[in-house]
Amino acid sequence: MWPLRLLVLGVLAAGTAEAQANSSDGFLEFSVGKFTYFLLSRPLPQEAILRHISSNVTFLLFQIHSQYQNTTVSFTKTLLPGTSGTGSDRGLVFILRPEQTMCTWYLETKEAKPVQNMAIPLSYSERDPIPGGCNLEFDLDIDPNIYLDYNSFETTIKFAPANLGYARGAEPPPCDVSTGQESRWRLQYEVYQYFLPEGDLTEASLLRHLQRMAQVPQVKASAVKVVTLTADDKTTVSFSSLPGQGVIYNVIVWDPFLNASAAYVPVHTYACSLESGDGSCVSPGRTSTKVFSTVFALLGLFVCFFGHRFWKTELFFVGFIFVGFFFYIIITRLTSLKYDVRLVLTAVAGSIGGILLVASWWRFGTLMLCMLCVGLVLGFLVSSGIFFTPLGNLNVFRDDGVFWVTFSCVALLIPVLFLGCLRILNILACGVLGSYSVVLAVDSYAFTSLSYITLNVLRRALNTAFRGALLRAPFQTNDFIVLAVWGMLAVSGITLQIRRERGQPPFPPHPYKLWKQGRERRVTNILDPSHHIPPLRERLYGRFAHIKEFFQREQPAGERTPLLL
């Protein structure tokens, strides 16, 4: 099985050089700038050799990658502190001595099964900056690695500052003696992000796409630059987590004085655990989420096409969203209940909120209050969509006060703009909100970035640290399809309801007034057939009596006289 797997990966890596694994000598031989696939097994470290190093090369960056299994790369055969790195994406910088033409590393793994790896040595000259050359935080003296940490809200990457390049045999430039243009403080750091195909969790795909993120020209051509840091900034960047979506990050350090660049070791994540076996990466949503979102989508689909005609159903839908959203935030921040319990409680609270909104309309008939709720929910979606664009990544919105005030103003603007045409506002809300519920349901079965339009706002409300995360999501084939379906449903629902309601009253009459007028009419008008209908209490008593008679034994008909002897 493993030889076959290796053969497949070798075919996918066509155009790259393969490692010349000499089983008799027990080492792997590499070439500069060439990717190599190989298997690592547990028993003994594997020696890696690079020969014929050019004299104009000052330092080498050797990096090794696997999908999720840990691999150790070391300068020495015996692991010593500060001479090795362990992980799924790790690398070492080797400063070359004068006249040195060969370099050696040692590779090993502690995994029980053989680990498929891909490695590449990269060469740099004395003009190029040294990634991680001014490391003061991590174990290695020179640490070119990017350290990644994630949770359900955000993914954070950290890296060590770089140093200026220098010739073989020379002393390295000091890191913190001065801050002038002749020191490492002139360096800039460009952070790049690259999305893997949606739903693709295969090892072959990951290793193939990592080849585009290892060298400076390929990184600039393939990935998107999301932020540029100076030497004065913290070497830490946060992104919104996308569970189940593969993402590769890399940092390019640039020397503007010499116009020279070098790349760190790229790092990848799926924001979930592939080795846990719980299916969290394969399936975007839990069973409880699928049930909740499916029922919610069916209700939303009904509202999308018939919401204005069935006014009370729409009010229940809006009240459910309004109360359920705030209730979920409160119980998540104040309690430590499990997700499934919180989802059930949210469904109950949302249902109560929907019933209360319907009851307030039935009893008091306050149209403006109901339309304010409808407009606010539509405004919430519109405001979320605006902050889903690159505008949401502006530094001014990192402040919670500025963000929430701006967000609320945009949400309030929608009901204000449609104050003179409430029926149009209601039909728009039915079409847009009802169709978006289908988008949320699709996300629980297949990944789509459009669900993060509202989920990012929910995350920010739940986690204060999320304000510093850069909001980026892929827009690939699935998203184009879901966007087309969303637009088609919204336009169809709005058009159908506008045509159907033409010539009809804008809104239904006040239900309580109709009920009260009907009751008074039945009391005063004896010619009204409903006047002769018994009161509700007598009708219920009659029903119970009928049910009671059903369970009683039937009495025999006629008269029977006992026989006299």
Automatic annotation (TrEMBL):
InterPro entries: TM7S3/TM198-like_dom, TM7SF3. Keywords: Membrane, Signal, Transmembrane, Transmembrane helix. Residues 1-19 form the signal peptide. It is found in: Membrane. Pfam families: Ig_TM7SF3_N (PF25992), TM7S3_TM198 (PF13886). Its main location: membrane. Residues 294-498 form the TM7S3/TM198-like domain. The chain crosses the membrane at residues 291-308, 315-331, 343-362, 369-389, 401-420, 427-447, 480-498. It comes from the Eukaryota. The keyword Transferase does not apply. It is a multi-pass membrane protein. The keyword Transmembrane helix applies. This is Transmembrane 7 superfamily member 3. It comes from Microtus ochrogaster (Prairie vole). The gene is Tm7sf3.
